Amino acid sequence: MEPNRIRDVLVGKTYYIRTFGCQMNLHDSERVSGLLDSFGCLEAASPEGADIVVFMTCCVREAADQRLYGQCSSMKSLPPSPSGHRVIAVGGCIAQRDGEGLLTNVDNVDVIFGTHSLGHVAELIARSFEDGSRQVFTPEDVQDEATSLPWHRAVSYHAWVPIMTGCNNFCSYCIVPYVRGREKSRTIEEVVDEVGGLVRAGVREVTLLGQNVNSFGRDRYGHPRFAELLRQVGDTGIERIRFTSSHPKDLLPETIDAMAEVPSVMPQLHLAVQSGSTRILKEMNRRYTREQYLDLIDRIRDRIPGIALSTDIIVGFPGETEEDFLETLSLAQTVGYAQAFTFIYSRREGTPAARIEDPTPREVIQNRFDRLVKVIEGTAYDFNQQALGRTIPVLVEGFSKKDAHMLQGKSPKNQTVHAPLPEGWTPEDVVGHIVDVEADRARTWYLSGTVAGEPR
């Protein structure tokens, strides 16, 4: 379908995108939004006002499937769209995994596009508008470069920057390698040029994205070059650099050195452990032991004192015993995480772990999960106490949902920080700016205080 024809069909149509899952999905949504913008579409504030509704999906946990089915079903009760014809599209990991099979579970979906097919979204939607057909496009070998698509960023001060796609790790519980494909790194020059352009556009903070950023460059250069990338991105003048996700087995000493030595790399690291039991880690195919992980934590803290560490932990992996769980509990206490994303194991068809039978009662797993959450709440609270009495530079992201006069932002350590908006200031004065906050209150999930000085 010719670009001019696509534009003729789509121009003036309104769209709404709902995103589930990881940061890579958030970035993919920004690319889809930018592509639709380029064909004359207009963003709507809600599905009710949209001619096009796009769901960008995640399939890491079973609940994501049910959530998608529920969301699609709810579209049936919406009033007619502004144009009188609403097209519903599903993209992301569920679309890539299920393809045409998704149509049997959601009968009102018009377009299905996979993780490698972002560049075809506008054409697929236009075809559906034109003749009412259901379009499915989920090949695995499409050479689309999503990073070359137009980009509609959600905010002006922060940008997601993918440095690689895919994953080679094949953790036994994880579906991601099957829906995102093998690792494919961008060139260092391409990433640095992109960040340089973002700096010139006024972006203050970037988050470098990959399923395993620590292996960046291995497929392209023959060995990982993430440490070099961090240094070169730091040289662009960007004020804050974050990155995710980071696999412990590939976190090299030179990367830790770069984190310590590049001023714009924030003193915060998300390092997924998944379990504190070496036996379970082996079953998960994580390729490190409990002892190796703890040794890595010691080396990180030796080079970056006070760093905020966060993690992912799975409770209830098939065959996990009380002894295994107690090792996870003690590891969490030993590390003292500032934050942790805790999950009950979700069986994913097509993964090796899905074949493991587990007789552990659900109530036992839930009890373990609740005990872990209490430990994490304790370590997070203790970590935040270190900020009391200190002046913290906060990148303001907006305002509290509970109080429109309470600004909200992130510290260098990725802590949520609240402070009253000083009298005479407007939201335009602070959102996207950095303000100093003198912390006088530290709770489990946030800090609060008063603004000191002017925004910058």
What labels would you give this structure?
alpha/beta; six-stranded parallel β-sheet; 456 residues; 15 helices; single chain
Question: What can you tell me about this protein's structure?
Answer:
The chain has 456 residues and is an alpha/beta fold. Helices cover 34% and strands 21% of the residues. It has 15 helices and 19 strands. It has helices spanning 3-10, 23-38, 62-74, 93-98, 121-131, 176-180, 188-200, 218-221, 226-234, 253-261, 278-283, 290-303, 322-335, 362-385, 427-430, and strands at 14-19, 42-43, 52-57, 87-92, 111-113, 135-137, 158-162, 164-165, 184-185, 205-209, 240-244, 268-270, 308-315, 339-344, 391-399, 406-410, 416-420, 434-442, 447-452. Strands 2-1-3-4-5-6 form a six-stranded parallel sheet, with helices on both faces. A five-stranded mixed beta barrel has the order 15-16-17-19-18. α1 crosses α5 and α9 (226-234) runs parallel beside α10. The longest helix is centred in the last third of the chain and has 24 residues, at 362-385. It is globular, with a radius of gyration of 23 Å. The termini are far apart. The model has no long low-confidence stretch (mean pLDDT 93).
